[in-house]
Write a structure and sequence with these properties.
Elements (H helix, E strand, L loop, with lengths): L4 H29 L5 E4 L4 E8 L14 H23 L5 H24 L2 E9 L2 E2 L5 H29 L2
Antiparallel strand pairs: 1-2, 2-3, 3-4
Helix pairs in contact: 1-3, 2-3, 3-4
């Protein structure tokens, strides 16, 4: 089902608000209730809950940059990209719902992390997963939102390709 007009914009803004809210509530809980670097283990040590303040971007990349490059790379460019993405998803009415949801999830996660960087000078991360030799970096709800968004975008590409192949085969 494709939403049109004001309903579409309202749905986009609601999904965006949900992403940002979930991210900010979880980060606030971590900052308020768990001391920095305290660790709590769950599921036989596969899930670790800990409070880390990341001054860089993904996996702390850019945390050693000096000003003004730090501001440009970690704040200004992301602001421009997020605004551009939001404008794009709002003005492109023929976009598939999966693609629109994926882009909005990525934008919501980006806004959540960007808000932290501006308000707290770092991004609060708090979950680490480890299954045998496989493990993640420490991440947060905004990162999950971004990954879900990327998954939805990839799924949309797969679905569109299958649709294109099936319509081409029947022609």
């Amino acid at each position: 089902m494709k939403l049109k007009g004001a309903y579409r914009i309202a749905a986009i803004l609601a999904l965006l608000a949900l992403n940002i809210s979930c991210d900010q509530v979880t980060k606030s809980m971590m900052r308020d209730h768990i001391n920095i670097y305290d660790q709590y283990y769950f599921l036989d040590g596969h899930v670790t809950l800990l409070h880390v303040e990341n001054t860089g971007a993904f996996l702390s990349l850019g945390d050693k940059l000096v000003q003004p490059f730090r501001f440009i790379v970690l704040t200004l460019l992301p602001i421009l990209a997020l605004i551009g993405g939001l404008v794009y998803v709002m003005v492109k009415p023929k976009m598939s719902p999966l693609m629109a949801m994926g882009i909005v999830c990525c934008i919501g996660g980006g806004i959540g992390n960007l808000y932290d960087r501006i308000a707290h000078d770092s991004v609060t991360d708090f979950v680490h997963l480890k299954f045998g030799p496989l493990q993640t970096g420490i991440f947060n709800a905004a990162d999950v939102s971004i990954m879900i968004g990327l998954g939805l975008i990839l799924l949309d590409g797969f679905v569109a390709k299958r649709r294109q192949n099936s319509s081409g085969a029947s022609a």
